Amino acid sequence: METPPKKAYQYDDLPAGGYIRTLHLLPGSDNHSLHCTLRTTLMSDAHYEAVSYVWGSDIRDHNIFCDGLSIPITSNLWTVLRHLRSETTRILWADSICIDQDNLKEKGIQVGLMGQIYRSALRVLIVVGDDDLGVGEDVHSLVTEIGTMVRETLQTHGTAEDSFPWPKENAPIVSDPRWGSFNLLLSRDWFRRGWVIQEAALAKESWLIFGKTKLHWVDFILTCTWQMLRFPVPNNLLDRIAMHFTLYTHYNPDVLRAFRPGQVRQSHLSMLAGANLLDFSDPRDRIFAFGEVAKDFSDHVLVQPAYDVSFLLAYRQFAVDYIHHVKSVELLEYAGHMGTSLEEEIPSWVPRWDLKIPSPGFTRALYAAPLASRDGSIYNASVEEQYYLKVRGVLLDTVVYASRLIWKTGQDIVDLSINLLKYLQNLETKTAYPREKLVDVLLENFTSGIFFGPWSRFRRDREAFALHLLQSTGHTDEDDLAQRRISATGGHPEAMVKCISNVISGMAFVLTKQGHMGLVPDVTREGDTCAIIFGCTRLSILRQAGGGGQYRYLGVATIMGSEYYKGDDGGDEFPILGEEGHKEWVDWDVDEQDIVLC
Description:
Oligomer: single chain
Number of strands: 19
Number of domains: 4
Number of helices: 18
């Protein structure tokens, strides 16, 4: 039974210079209240295990007794500490106890140290909650089996391209019922929490505790990696561990190379963007929560948490600091708008880390080279008056048709695709593409380089859907249809519909004055400008802001070039307009110029 508190614990101020408090959790039986002492120590001298858990409700309706005085804690932390309490004193670090939550100055300083705190811990204990359905044994056996397989394969074959072949759809591992148990683990709230990203990534050693089951974090993340990159059926729950996967493979690049050849460009900014599916109770923490792990990226910007400014001002200051220190326009790859965000009192080019803004071609951009000027130059960006961003580029084209992509069901996507293809086929003016390739360009645009499963299967699925669209729009070229029937053998149109549904949500389809089609932010309207900003990997959509040559920045776009070529598998490849080797715009009547974004 929990003893009623008589007097509240009063925190002493922490000395300056890297001091923290450690929680010495005293032993006790299950039915005894929690007791501890708090000790102030230099982090460099401390020996402790750091706890990673879900705060849950902010209501602190339970108590832990520190030297006989009560500290109110949440129900979740109370449960976690009871679970971790052992037969001897256990030295821990848990944020909501070891940081005085009512002292904003201390909180800001300690939050800035949290990455170092987890990096310095003997180990990190990731407590995700109780195993209510008793699936822990199944999860443990699956994670151990897959983790061991991946590690042994890497030791034997290294980063050879065929180290991890795609399993057949009827392979026993694909239909293994233990994946259902694994999904129950992934559905725990811990995997939605933003703060835990660097808590796990920076640890010397981590253990994931699920009820009575204890999983080695490396085996768990290797299992997620294999499922994410080799499982033939997409699992939306894996979105929750995408950031854990990204950071693990950043620190262990050979793991990613063995599954996916090619160099992925990760950065401080891509990390912040990847966290937009995660939960933070305070939107400022979307930049504050990654201060320590950001140091492991070449473009990192020092962030000092400050909870006395609004989140929009914090975002603006981060953006200004980034441009001042890094000089790169990569920041624009993550800026964009939806709804009424353009009306906010911050510059339009400042990324809104709190919004889940769709980003056309984001996966493709991770591998792409920056778009450059006619002579291959990329220019530094600069901020003027803490508000205006000066960049260099070309104003390429104007939007003449914009259609928001709104759908609820798979059939809606089919109907949408048919209607857009009919629109393109019946245009009085020519598009930038051969008529017989319109369906291929449309589908390449809709998928933006994203696909699930083996590439060969994706190509068959795409060809099968293209065949369905052509037949639905009255295509009569029998030779073309016959060739497509061969290419579509074994393909499933419905698989392509699922792929498209994961890409186009929240976007708009546009056609430009010069006949190019593309995916753009859904705030795009007729009359907006398509531009190349040198240094970005994708095109940008701009809107003129009064006089003086200033523009509002709406977001990135994937505008398909008119040139295409045969890929290694004999299929047509469609590059993005402006990609190196496909800079058709250099022959257009457009000038390179300074562009001011506001």
